Amino acid sequence: MTFTDQASGTLPHSTATPAGPAAPAALSGLAVADAPAQARFGGPLTSPGGRRSAIDTRTSEPLLDVTIPVFNEERDLEACLRRLHAYLLGSFPHSFRITVADNASTDGTLKTAERVARELREVNVVHMAEKGRGNALRKVWLASPSPVLAYMDVDLSTDLAALGPLLAPLISGHSDLAIGTRLTRNSRVVRGPKREFISRSYNFLLQSFMGAHFSDAQCGFKAIRADVARQLLPHTLDNAWFFDTELLVLAEKCGLRVHEVPVDWTDDPDSSVDIVQTAIADLRGMARLSRDLVSGRIPVPELRAALARGPLPASSRAQEQSPGGSLFGQLVRFGSIGVASTLAYLVIFLLCRGIMDPQLANFLALLTTAVANTAANRRFTFGIQGSSQAARHHFEGLLVFGIGLALTSGALAVVHNASGGAPDRWLELVTVTAANLAATAVKFLLFRLVVFRHRPATAVPGRTGTPAVPATTTGTAPAPAATDASFPAQKRPSK
């Protein structure tokens, strides 16, 4: 049992662990995929065969660290800790720690946690001066010496029987992160229609606009390997509820595997979470994370070079070759970008039309929006990151722009000839809008089939573990069963 300095909220032990050294706070200036860069970053986490190493269960530190973030949970905390402790003691065959992360509680939560920790040696208490689940998890996980990190909500809404299947693929090296999901056919969930609708809508937005493949970003039942966490956590910013989404999206962008476990979940009717405000904050987080990915604040290519798994044996199949995901997701993202581009085009066209010929106004409006449109579709619709082949993509995008220019210019010429050379301004606007929509449909086909079509990369001698195609899968590959074979028996030290 250990306690923390309640003023600083830092753990009293070192962050160095058997799983590897701590990660640096930033990766700016890191060269892509070269050995010196990977050494500075902490080394590639994959073996030469592109596989993640299994975790040594004989570690002297607790193998598992389960964090319980709490804020004013005096009433429920003790029952939660005793129930979780009894379950782990009886069902988890390795050493463990339960860390209570008190987020600036103003009631008796901290005293309750400390009292239980004095009785149960596996319980640890950390006091944070600031509120926020993301802040608590980031600090506790970066300081923990355990090779497997997990967290769950204090109400224990998720049936603990799912904990074994959650942890087994991380220990074996099969997966990098594991999440509970309430949104699959095999999940059994008891909750109101309002929460169900908001949750499904939010995850649909993540899948459609950010290309996410996981089904449930918000379930408070997750685990991550510590070696992966140390690489990703310094690049997360959110201190509240969006932290989960930010971590999962970043993991998928870096080519990591997220394993999903269907859970049995019962809604807590006394939950203090404001789901509407949380949903709004999550939408703002999506916008901020999108900006961070586009601006390069998060060095995804460098992270991918150090973290990504090797290519799949079936990587020649078309499904694995499509970096942008499903056709439906591509259509949704392309349509959203197209709406924004069309609105920008109309504004520029109207501004230019007042001072110049309609054909010239059309040319300038199309050219101005074409470059931004190509860049946005390259990044969001088709999931291509980094500067590799960017010049070729933009050149081919300008060729596609030429087709759009021909369609809109031809439509303008027809309407001017039909009206005797002086059409109504609104007729011009409707004409170029219709032509632009037709050009958009042609553009999507050309982008998908020609410009951003996946081209298998040529293998580079001596470079392994860096896939040409993201190897991220979510819940599609079989995980090790949560049996005693998955968790080799380990004798716990006697009290």
From TrEMBL:
Q: Where is this region: Disordered?
A: 1-22, 39-58, 461-495
User: Which CDD domains does UniProt cross-reference here?
Assistant: DPG_synthase
Q: Which UniProt keywords apply?
A: Endoplasmic reticulum, Glycosyltransferase, Membrane, Signal-anchor, Transferase, Transmembrane, Transmembrane helix
Q: Key word Ligase present in the record?
A: no
One Pfam family of this chain = Glycos_transf_2
Sequence intervals crossing the membrane = 331-352, 395-414, 426-446
- Does the keyword Methyltransferase feature in the UniProt annotation? no
Give residue ranges for domain GtrA/DPMS transmembrane.
333-452
Question: How does this protein lie in the membrane?
Answer: Single-pass membrane protein; Multi-pass membrane protein
Any idea where the Glycosyltransferase 2-like domain is?
Answer: 66-232
Give start-end positions of Low complexity composition bias. Answer: 461-485
Q: What is its main location?
A: endoplasmic reticulum
Can you state which reaction this protein catalyses?
a di-trans,poly-cis-dolichyl phosphate + UDP-alpha-D-glucose = a di-trans,poly-cis-dolichyl beta-D-glucosyl phosphate + UDP
Q: What is its EC number?
A: 2.4.1.117
Compositionally biased, Polar residues: which spans?
Answer: 1-13
Q: Where in the cell is it found?
A: Endoplasmic reticulum membrane; Membrane
Looking up InterPro entries in the UniProt record yields: DPG_synthase, Glyco_trans_2-like, GtrA_DPMS_TM, Nucleotide-diphossugar_trans
Pathway noted in the entry = Protein modification; protein glycosylation
- Family classification: Belongs to the glycosyltransferase 2 family.
Q: Which PANTHER family match?
A: DOLICHYL-PHOSPHATE BETA-GLUCOSYLTRANSFERASE (PTHR10859:SF91), GLYCOSYL TRANSFERASE (PTHR10859)
Q: What protein name is recorded for this chain?
A: dolichyl-phosphate beta-glucosyltransferase
